[in-house]
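Action item from last week, closing it out:
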Amino acid sequence: MKSHCDIVLINPGGRSEAYQDLSNDLAAIEPPLWLALVGRYLQQKSWAVEIIDADAEALTASQVAQRVGEASPILAVIFAYGANPSASTQKMPVVRLIAQQIKDSLPALPLALGGVHVSALPERTLTEEPCDFAIQGEGFRTLDALLACLQAGGQELEKVAGLWFRRDGQVTHTPPAPLLKDLDADLDGGAWDLLPMAGYRAHNWHCFDRLDRRSPYAAIYTSFGCPFNCSFCCINAPFGGSGIRYRGVASVLAEIDLLVSRYGVTNIKIADELFVLKPERVRAICQGLIERNYGLNIWAYARVDTVAPDLLDKLKQAGVNWLAYGFESAVASVRLEASKRFEDETVERAIALTRQAGIYIIANYIFGLPEDDYHTMAATLQAAMVHDFEFANFYCAMAYPGSRLYEQAIKEHWALPEAWAGYSQLGYETLPLPTKHLSAQQVLNFRDRAFVKFFADRSYQERIERQFGPEAKRHIQQMLAVNIRRRHAESTEIR
């Protein structure tokens, strides 16, 4: 690390707390994409930037503080920004550890916190956490202005948009910073040169047919935000509301060119909350990738009501081998309550068309939505098993800060986790929402048993072995062998 820089951006670790023993070999190690984008933006504004990825480098809080001290920055910023929106709040315990270590070691250094969770709860963050500033919003313009303010002596914080801070012992804040309007003009991809690129690896399922080549791995955004407003989702917390902004096709392709040519990346996650939405744009990106013929292995998110046969064929030709669908529940009335407004026929059509295109499906389901009971959750599990998906994620419903479900939970006095660690899906402290019919413990027990039933199914394992080979089946069995300890379940171990 350099002897001096203007700003240090920190990605906290905490994988072992979030995923327990699954973090050792099975879980992905994803690049901190938002930090890379913020870093590149600030570089373009002529600031000297360093990024410390405590997750990829397995750094302790004291090691992070030491690295920050060696950099001698004007400002340090810890971002609670996970690989998906739901991975922000669960990072707050380790954020606190690192923040406290920095403040103890470097008390004069201004420290800011940012990310989805912080944007959703800026005042609470500033009140509870050992920091000087809370960044509400994207962070691009706010950090540029904050650095300029601090460099000039720090007397005009009121002019820094999107900032929460203390003045005369009282918490105060400025109006939100304007969003970036032209993502191509304002951003030039990520600052990949600041990241330990050799330390990232893809999800095991993403590489079922190439498990010896999970690295190198990268993720990119081709758009920011989402035009939908699902009750359980907090993705739009940094953006102030629903909406979507797109990067240009040429910009997206240029960043992929860089990742392939400079870092040898072939495994790519398109991190957009909804990549398959604007057909002509998706076709153009796919056509560019087809012409390049890089042999990429890509996965992306899609909705069942936005896919079409010709679009799916293009995606497959471009190297999109996996699509993640948010099915959430097999029961239409449960989906409707969560603002997922599509019919069962739409689900079946999307599954059939995706399979016809030769694209694998990773199915995402949520147990414990407000209308769920044992019958509806059993129907959801049955649907997952009947459809023979290549992989499935089973989540518990959580009222993540920044979501409408969180607002509803606060308004109706629903029981929420006592600590931020309780928002982790696979952590020891996990505590989901109760439903109108079930307790939080009942939801958690059902989810964990559903996970075992799906992946331990003999026909599923045999099919995975036929499709991908014995190593993929071994990964499934290794995953099942991991003990997931739960404080709030009937049993403390789930196999």
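Closing note: The chain has two domains: 7-173, 201-494.
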